[in-house]
Specification:
The complex is a heterotrimer of chains A (459), B (469) and C (169). With 459 residues, chain A is mainly α. Chain A has helices at 9-16, 18-21, 27-51, 66-77, 79-90, 100-121, 128-132, 148-181, 184-193, 201-234, 247-274, 282-312, 316-327, 331-344, 346-350, 353-356, 359-386, 402-425, 431-440, and strands spanning 441-446, 449-457. In chain A, helix 3 (27-51) runs antiparallel to helix 18, helix 4 (66-77) packs antiparallel against helix 6 (100-121) and helix 8 runs antiparallel to helix 10. The longest helix of chain A has 34 residues, at 148-181. The two termini of chain A are 25 Å apart. Chain C folds into two domains: 4-50 and 126-168, Alpha-Beta Plaits (2-Layer Sandwich); 57-119, no CATH class. Chain C contains four helices and four strands. Chain C has helices at 13-25, 57-80, 93-119, 151-161; strands at residues 4-10, 33-36, 139-145, 165-168. A four-stranded antiparallel β-sheet of chain C has the order 2-3-1-4, with helices on one face. Chain C is rod-shaped and about 80 Å long. The chains are: A mainly alpha (459), B mainly alpha (469), C alpha+beta (169).
Chain lengths: 459, 469, 169
C-alpha cells in the first residue's frame, strides 16, 4: 500500500515543473533527432501519395494491411487515457494521481496518429472530404451514414475533441501554477492559457465535479470508439473471422490491455528521464500491474470466446481460416508470439510482487504486451483477406513494403516527438492532483499500527 | 446569493457521518436479528413457501404431462437462467472488498453471499431440463454445440456439474467469510444457534493467523467463484440456449448473460438490503453509502447491458445473411418483439431515467423501485431468448439455419405457477437464512466502523477511511 | 468608489479558517470574502461559502442540441440522396443511432466544458489581488469591498488571525 510521504508544495513545484522551468540537457538533442526522423517519414508519406498506393505491398486480395493494423493499434493505445483517468477518477482510486495526465496525453497524440493512417491509406486523401463531411449541398451528394467507414471518423473525432478538452480543463490549475513561476513571454502565454485561474473554492469545486462529470461522459465515448472500429470488420459477412458479435467488447478490452500497458511504458520513461522518483513510485506500477492482470485475463476470456464461436459453426471456410491463422507458416509463428507476448509471458510475471514493483521489468513486459497486441490486430485483419478462395486469382501472400514499414516506424517517432514537445511547455504529472493527495491522506493509528487513510468528503 | 440555506441543509442531510457504534453492541444487535422475526416476516415467508411448494408440484405435473415435448419447456429454461443470474450474480458483490478494498461494501457482503443458498432452486429446476435436452446427434447429423467432437452426454453432465460446483463454491465463499460470526453466535446466542455456532466456528478465537487465513480464503474462493460463474454462464447459455437454435452463432451471448447476471445480482441485493433495513431496523448499519455505491454500479451495468445487446444486434442486422435474418426474426423482430420491447424499456430505459438523477439514486426507495423494474425486465429478456430457443422442434435442430420460425409458445398455467414458485422458493430460502446467521456480517460491520471515522477537517466534515493492506 | 480587495496570506489552514470565522463574525457578507488555495481542500474546510452551481444543466442542454442536429443530419442527408446500399432501408435507424449517439455525446462534452469554464467564472483576465506563493502552499484569504470603510476592519481581522502578510489592490 501507499507509503505516505510529506512532500513540500514548493518541492513538488520545483521537481514536477523541471521540464518547463529547467529543461533537461537531453531534451533538445532528442527532440531534434526525432524531428529529423519525423520529417523523413513525412517525405515518405508524401512520396507515397505522389506515386500512389502501388509502392505498398497491398493488392488483391489483401487491401488492408500494415496501415489498417497500425491504425487499430493506435486507436487501441488511445484507450489508455480515458480508461485510467475516467474509471480511476470515478472509483476514487488514489494511485491514479500521477498517471492521469500522461494517460490523457497518450490518448490525444495516439488518436492524432491513428487518424493519419486511414487518411493516407485512401490514396487520394483530399477526397476524404467528399466521403465523410456532408457539405456537398449544391449537388445533393451526401455521405453514406450506413457505412461504418463514416461512423469511424465521426466517433474518432468525437473522442479526439472530447479528450483534448478534458486534458485542457484538467490542465487549468497547473497552468495557473506555471504562470506564477514564469516571467516574460512564457508568463504571458500561461496567463492567457490559464484564463485567470486563482484557486478559489468555486474553481476547485468545478475541477472536482466537472472532472467526474466529464469522466462519466467520456467513458461511453471511449467504449463506442473502439466498438465502431471493430464494426469496420465485424459487420462484413464476406470475410471469415470478421463477422463475429463479440468484436466490439473484444476490441475494447484489448485496447484497454494495450493502452494501460503503454501507460506503464510511459510512466517508466518519465520516471527515468525527469527523475521523478518521488512521484512515480513502485506502488503505482504495482497497482497498474494488478489492474493489467484483471484486464488481460478478461481479454483472454474474450479471445477464447471469439475462437470457440468461430469454430462453433463448423463452416468449412471458417475452419480453413482458423487452420491457416494458427497452424500455417508464417502465421503460426506470429500466432505463438502473439499469445506469448500478449498474455503468457507478462501476466504470470506480474503475479509476483517483486516483478510488479521492479520498474525495469514492468517497462519491458509492458512493451511485450504491445508487441502482442499489434500482432493480434494483424492476425485478425490480414489472414481473413489473404486466405485463398476460389474466386481470387492472385494468390500472392501479402508482404509489407519498405514504405509501409517506414511509415509504421514514423508513427512511433511522431508520437514520442509530440509528447516531448508537449513536455517542454506543460507538466506531464498533474501537480494539483499530487498536492491534493498530500492534503487528503493521513495516517491513522489503530492500536499500534499506523494505517494510511484517505479523507473522503461526505457527499 | 441564495445559497447559505442550501449549504446548511446540504450539511445536515449528506454530511451527517455514519454513527459510531461499539463493537459489542453491533454483535448483540445483529445476532438478535436472527431471532426477532416480525409477524409480517413470518407471514411473507409462509406465503412464499406455499407458492414454492405449489411450484414444485406444478413442475412435477408438467414433467409427467409434457415430459416428451421439449418445445414446451422454454419458460422453465428462462427461469433457470433468471435464477442463475440472481443467485449466481449476487455473491460476486461479496468479494468486492477483497478485490477493490472498498469500504462501503463490507456491511453488504453477507446478504450477497446468502443468495448462494438459493442456487439449490436453480439446480432443482435444471433437472427436468437436462432430461429434456435433445441429444447431440439426431438422424446421424450432429448439431452445432461447443461440444464439437465430445461424447454425447457432454452438455448434460458438464452443465449440471458446473452448476453444482458454482453452488458449492458459493457456499464455501459464504462459510469462509462467516466463521467469525459463527464464533460470535457461539458466544452471544442461545439454543440451537449457539450449538451451530460452536460447531461451525471451528475454534475461532480471532488470532492473527486465523484472520490472515480467513482473508486468504475469501480471496481464493472469491476468485474461484468468479471464474466458475463466468464458465457456468458460458455453459448454460450455449447448451440450454444458443445451441438449441440452428444458425444462432453469437459469441457475445455468454458475456451478455454474465453481465446481466451481475446486474440481476446487484438488483437482488438492493431489494434484499432495502427489506432488511426496513424490517429489521438496521438503518444504523446499512448506510446510505452502500445504496449510492450500489446505485452507481447498477447504472453502469444497465448501460453495459445495452452496449452488449447492441454489439450483438448490429452485427446480425448488418450481416443480412440467411441465418443472420433467421436469428433476428426468432429472437428480436419476430413474435418476441413485445417481450423484447418491454425488456428494453424495463431493463434500460426506465432504470436509466430513474438512476441518472442523483436525487433518486440517493434515496433508498427510488433505488429499490429501479431494482424491481430491472428484475422484471430481465425476466422478460430471459424469456425472449430462452423460450424461442426451446421452441425449435428437435427434428430441425441440426439444420444449417432456421428455415421456419416456430410458433411462439405462450406460458401455460403450469409455467406461470412454476415461475412464481421458483422465484418464491429462492426468496424464502434467502429469508430463512437470515434466521440462521445475522443478515449483516458482524465482523465486517465492526471492521467498517473501525476503518471509517467521521472527522472534522479544519472546519469541514469528512470521513477518514483507512486503507490497510 | 471602485471595487477594492485585500489579501491575507497564511501558512496554516487552521489560521486561515480562523480568519474566515473572524470575517463572518465581523459581519462581512457571505460571498465578499473567499479563500485561495494551491490545491483543493475538502469542501467546507475553511467554513467557506459553499458555491452552488448549475453544471449539470450544461450536458443535458448540449445533448439535446446534439441529438436534434444529428437526427436532422442523418435523416435529411439520407433522404436527400436516397441510395440503397446493401439492401438496407434509406432511413436505417440502427446505423443512424450510432452517429446520433456520437454527436449527442460530443455536444454534451463540449457543453460541459463550456459549463465548467463558465461556472468557474473564467476567463477572468483581471483577477485582482493575488500572490504567487498561493501555488506554493500558502493560503490566501481575499476580501472584496465596495466602499473603503471596512478595509481597516478586515485588515484587523486578518492580522488577529495571524496573517503573515497582507496585500492590497
Amino acid at each position: 500500500m501507499q507509503q505516505r510521504r510529506e512532500l513540500d508544495q514548493s518541492y513538488t513545484n520545483r521537481k514536477l515543473l523541471n521540464g518547463q522551468l529547467d529543461t533537461p540537457k537531453w531534451w533538445a538533442p532528442t527532440v531534434t533527432g526525432l524531428g529529423i526522423l519525423v520529417v523523413i517519414g513525412l517525405i515518405v508519406i508524401a512520396t507515397m501519395i505522389n506515386k500512389g498506393l502501388g509502392v505498398t505491398g497491398l493488392g488483391r486480395p489483401v487491401f488492408w494491411g500494415l496501415f489498417i493494423t497500425t491504425f487499430v493499434f493506435w486507436v487501441g493505445i488511445s484507450h489508455a487515457g480515458i480508461m485510467i483517468s475516467a474509471i480511476l477518477r470515478l472509483t476514487q482510486a488514489e494511485w491514479r494521481r500521477p498517471v492521469t495526465r500522461a494517460a490523457e496525453l497518450l490518448t490525444v497524440f495516439s488518436l492524432l496518429t491513428a487518424l493519419v493512417f486511414p487518411l493516407i491509406h485512401a490514396g487520394r486523401p483530399w477526397r476524404i472530404a467528399y466521403w465523410i463531411t456532408p457539405y456537398d449541398i449544391s449537388r445533393g451528394i451526401y455521405p453514406n451514414i450506413r457505412s461504418p467507414l463514416i461512423m469511424d471518423p465521426v466517433a474518432i473525432s468525437t473522442y479526439l475533441t472530447g479528450s483534448t478538452l478534458f486534458l485542457y480543463i484538467a490542465l487549468l490549475p497547473d497552468l495557473g501554477n506555471l504562470r506564477d513561476r514564469t516571467t516574460g513571454w512564457q508568463n504571458a502565454m500561461y496567463t492567457v492559457l490559464s484564463l485567470g485561474w486563482r484557486g478559489n473554492p468555486r474553481q476547485w469545486k468545478m475541477q472536482t465535479v466537472g472532472g467526474i462529470l466529464l469522466s462519466a461522459l467520456m467513458l461511453p465515448i471511449f467504449v463506442s470508439v473502439h466498438s465502431i472500429v471493430s464494426w469496420d470488420f465485424a459487420i462484413a459477412p464476406a470475410v471469415e473471422g470478421w463477422h463475429s458479435t463479440i468484436f466490439a467488447p473484444y476490441f475494447v478490452i484489448g485496447a484497454v490491455h494495450s493502452g494501460v500497458s503503454a501507460v506503464v511504458t510511459m510512466m517508466a520513461l518519465m520516471r527515468w528521464l525527469w527523475k521523478w522518483d518521488d512521484f512515480i513510485r513502485p506502488e503505482h506500477f504495482d497497482a497498474l500491474a494488478r489492474l493489467l492482470i484483471v484486464v488481460a485475463t478478461g481479454w483472454l476470456a474474450f479471445t477464447f470466446l471469439e475462437l470457440i464461436f468461430a469454430v462453433y459453426g463448423q463452416d468449412a471456410p471458417e475452419l480453413a481460416l482458423r487452420e491457416m491463422q494458427m497452424f500455417q507458416w508464417p502465421w503460426n509463428l506470429l500466432f505463438i508470439i502473439f499469445l506469448l507476448t500478449g498474455y503468457f509471458i507478462p501476466v504470470p510475471m506480474w503475479l509476483f510482487k517483486r516483478v510488479r514493483t521492479n520498474i525495469a521489468l514492468m517497462f519491458w513486459t509492458s512493451i511485450l504486451v504491445n508487441v502482442g497486441m499489434w500482432l493480434e490486430r494483424f492476425l485478425i485483419i490480414v489472414p481473413g483477406l489473404a486466405r485463398r478462395t476460389p474466386f481470387v486469382y492472385t494468390w500472392e501472400a501479402y508482404r509489407p513494403s519498405a514504405v509501409e514499414w517506414t511509415i509504421f516506424i514514423w508513427s512511433f517517432c511522431w508520437v514520442t516527438f509530440l509528447m516531448l514537445l508537449f513536455s517542454r511547455f506543460f507538466p506531464l504529472v498533474p501537480l494539483f492532483e499530487q498536492k491534493e493527495s498530500q492534503v487528503f491522506t493521513e495516517d491513522v493509528t489503530i492500536g499500534r499500527a499506523k494505517v494510511p487513510a484517505i479523507v473522503r468528503e461526505a457527499d | 446569493m441564495t445559497s447559505e440555506a442550501t449549504a446548511h441543509s446540504h450539511e445536515t442531510e449528506h454530511h451527517a457521518p455514519p454513527a459510531q457504534v461499539d463493537a459489542d453492541i453491533i454483535a448483540h444487535e445483529l445476532i438478535a436479528t436472527t431471532t426477532n422475526a416480525s409477524k409480517r416476516f413470518k407471514t411473507i415467508a409462509w406465503v412464499l413457501g406455499i407458492f414454492g411448494i405449489i411450484g414444485i408440484i406444478a413442475l412435477v405435473l408438467k414433467f409427467l404431462d409434457q415430459g416428451s415435448d421439449s418445445t414446451k419447456w422454454g419458460y422453465v429454461a428462462a427461469l433457470v437462467s433468471f435464477l442463475l443470474s440472481i443467485t449466481g450474480g449476487a455473491p460476486m458483490v461479496a468479494m468486492a472488498p477483497v478485490m477493490a478494498k472498498a469500504n462501503w461494501v463490507r456491511p453488504v457482503t453477507r446478504i450477497a453471499s446468502i443468495f448462494s443458498f438459493a442456487g439449490v432452486v436453480t439446480i432443482g429446476m435444471l433437472i427436468p431440463l437436462v432430461a429434456m435436452l435433445p441429444p447431440l446427434v439426431t438422424e446421424g447429423a450432429r448439431r452445432r454445440t461447443i461440444w464439437m467432437e465430445a461424447p454425447d452426454y457432454s452438455p448434460h453432465i458438464w452443465s449440471t456439474l458446473g452448476l453444482v460446483l458454482l453452488f458449492i463454491t458459493g457456499i464455501m465463499l459464504f462459510y469462509s467469510a462467516a466463521i467469525p460470526d459463527f464464533a460470535a453466535m457461539r458466544n452471544h446466542s442461545t439454543g440451537w444457534r449457539q450449538r451451530l455456532g460452536k460447531r461451525l466456528a471451528r475454534g475461532w478465537v480471532g488470532t492473527d493467523s486465523q484472520w490472515r487465513t480467513l482473508r486468504m480464503r475469501i480471496g481464493m474462493f472469491g476468485t474461484f467463484y468468479f471464474l466458475i460463474l463466468v464458465f457456468v454462464n458460458f455453459l448454460i447459455t450455449s447448451d440450454f440456449g444458443q445451441s438449441m437454435v440452428p444458425g444462432w452463432r453469437d459469441a457475445i451471448y455468454p458475456m451478455y448473460h454474465t453481465v446481466s447476471s451481475f446486474q440481476a445480482g446487484v438488483a437482488g441485493i438492493v431489494i434484499a438490503l432495502w427489506a432488511a433495513r426496513r424490517q429489521m431496523n438496521l438503518q444504523k448499519y446499512v448506510h446510505m453509502d452502500a445504496f449510492w455505491s450500489l446505485g452507481r454500479l447498477l447504472f453502469a451495468l444497465t448501460l453495459l447491458w445495452v452496449y452488449f445487446f447492441y454489439s450483438s444486434f448490429i452485427v446480425f442486422w448488418y450481416g443480412r445473411s440467411a441465418n443472420d435474418i433467421a436469428t433476428l426474426n426468432l429472437l428480436v423482430k419476430g413474435p418476441m418483439i413485445y417481450a423484447f420491447i418491454a425488456g428494453m424499456v424495463l431493463i434500460w430505459f426506465v432504470p436509466w431515467w430513474i438512476l441518472i438523477w442523483n436525487k433518486v439514486r440517493r434515496g433508498v426507495n427510488g433505488m429499490t423501485i429501479g431494482a424491481v423494474i430491472i428484475l422484471i425486465g430481465l425476466l422478460l429478456d430471459r424469456i425472449r431468448t430462452f423460450v424461442p430457443a426451446w421452441s425449435v422442434p428437435p427434428e430441425r435442430i441440426h439444420e444449417k439455419w432456421l428455415t421456419v420460425i416456430p410458433e411462439t409458445v405462450y406460458p401455460s398455467l403450469l409455467d406461470v405457477l412454476i415461475m412464481i414458485g421458483g422465484i418464491s422458493l429462492a426468496a424464502v430460502i434467502v429469508m430463512l437464512m437470515t434466521r440462521v446467521v445475522p443478515v449483516l456480517s458482524v465482523w465486517q460491520v465492526q471492521e467498517f466502523n473501525l476503518l471509517a471515522k467521521p472527522i472534522r477537517y479544519v472546519r469541514g466534515h469528512a470521513t477518514l477511511v483507512a486503507k490497510p493492506d | 468608489m471602485s471595487t477594492q480587495s485585500i489579501l491575507g496570506l497564511f501558512q496554516q489552514p487552521e489560521l486561515a479558517a480562523d480568519a474566515m470565522d473572524g470575517l463572518k463574525e465581523a459581519g462581512f457578507e457571505l460571498g465578499t470574502f473567499d479563500v485561495l488555495t494551491g490545491t483543493p481542500y475538502p469542501e467546507g474546510a475553511f467554513g467557506e461559502y459553499v458555491p452552488q452551481h448549475r453544471l449539470f444543466r450544461f450536458p443535458a442542454f448540449g445533448a439535446i442540441i446534439g441529438l436534434t442536429l444529428s437526427i436532422f443530419l442523418t435523416a435529411v442527408t439520407q433522404l436527400a440522396y436516397p441510395m440503397v446500399t446493401g439492401g438496407k432501408p434509406i432511413l436505417s435507424i440502427f446505423a443512424m443511432l450510432i452517429i446520433m449517439y456520437e454527436m449527442t455525446m460530443l455536444s454534451g462534452v463540449i457543453a460541459t466544458v463550456i459549463g465548467i469554464v463558465f461556472e468557474s467564472r473564467l476567463p477572468n483576465m483581471k483577477p485582482g489581488v493575488y500572490d504567487t506563493r498561493i501555488t506554493e502552499g500558502w493560503i490566501g484569504v481575499v476580501v472584496t469591498f465596495d466602499d473603503d470603510s471596512k478595509v481597516a476592519e478586515a485588515q484587523n481581522v486578518l492580522n488577529k488571525a495571524g496573517a503573515l502578510e497582507i496585500k492590497t489592490a
